[in-house]
Amino acid sequence: MTAVPINRLSKAKGAKYLCEITGAPATLVCSECPVYFATKEHFDVWWRGIGNLIAQDIVVLRGPPKMIGSEEERHRRNEELMGIRKELLELCTETAQKFLVQGKYELAVPGALQSLKFAIEVHGSEATELVPSYLLLAEANLGLRRLKIAEEFLSLANWNILKHPQAGASLMSSLQRNFGRLYAAQQRYNEALQAFATDIYHSSLEFGPENIRSAPSYFHMGRVFQSHQKSYRATSFYTKVVEVYQKFLEAWMDESGGEPSSEITAVEIEEAIEIVKHITDYREKRAEEDPSDVARTETADGRYTLGLLQAYTGDLSTAGENLNTALEVFLSTVGVSHDKTKNCRRRLEQLWKREAAQQALEEQQGQP
């Protein structure tokens, strides 16, 4: 797939071609669909970020309208196109979220931009449904350190929510979380703490203070204290995060039989893994300075939680490694009779049973 120069001879009179990424005058067009770019670099980012997933649908949506006779046929055609837009809105949003969780902020931008365009086409330019796209764009630009652009998108989201008081606590939580990130990046730490505290309030209001979807709110508050070198407070918030994830994952292992939970999305699980990795790395560095049993047990708690998350994703081998590492530390610090040790051993046994069941199923399927 590539971008080729725009054919000026076939250009419609008065037509203006603008870059899909920057809005600047375009000189190139995708060879597969009518999407325009200022440079090949912009095309490359767009294609890897979202274009490879939506190019064929863009041809349908932006192609010349079919000659349809009756009003009923036109109505049916419009409904079909609107259905495509709604599906692409969901796809673009989810794709941008995945890249954000992975820290690939440049690749998150195209999906976030496309999600905003589809949201406007589906819901109109004033609807609250635009707010998630504004927040995606704000988060991507925060990651790219384009703080002024991020602040502009956050202001648009804030203004939209102010005009729609019924928007709900979940959107307000996401808005305040991103304002907190912005203030932290600007080293306005008191304002960051206030924003994250408001995020925790709205998240708890929407999901409950012990719900897995509230855990990232506590995590971001902890990161601000970590940046401030206030390790005691950071540790308290990180402990809360790990406890929330453990409670959810242990219940899931006992009740689900390995099936994904409807309470959390695949993107949120990816985010949880990155959060717990950060906390575990932080604890391990502190344990190097303070090799006490308490510090080592906290590190093992992180490994244990990470193992449960990996078990949730189906990565049973890596999950087993982390649970084994945690069990060794628990045995040497709190002893064989402690609840942490017993719990970790129990989860390992559950993991072995799942692995054995998977292996038996694969062998059965491999038989002629």
Helix content: over 70%
Count of β-strands: 3
Which structural class fits the helix and strand makeup?
Answer: mainly alpha
The SSE string, one letter per element, is: EEEHHHHHHHHHHHHH
Radius of gyration: 24 Å
* Helical run tally: 13
Short structural summary:
The chain has 368 residues and is mostly helical. It contains 13 helices and three strands, in the order E-E-E-H-H-H-H-H-H-H-H-H-H-H-H-H. Strands 1-2-3 form a three-stranded antiparallel beta sheet.
Describe this entry's structure for a reader.
This protein is mostly helical and 368 residues long. It is built from 13 helices and three strands; from the N terminus they run βββααααααααααααα. Strands 1-2-3 form a three-stranded antiparallel sheet. Helix 9 (231-255) crosses helix 11 and helix 10 packs antiparallel against helix 11 (293-313). The radius of gyration is 24 Å and the shape is globular. It starts with a strand and ends with a helix.
Question: Topology of this protein?
Answer:
Elements: E1 3-5, E2 28-30, E3 36-37, H1 40-62, H2 71-101, H3 105-123, H4 131-143, H5 147-163, H6 169-185, H7 189-207, H8 215-227, H9 231-255, H10 266-289, H11 293-313, H12 316-333, H13 339-366
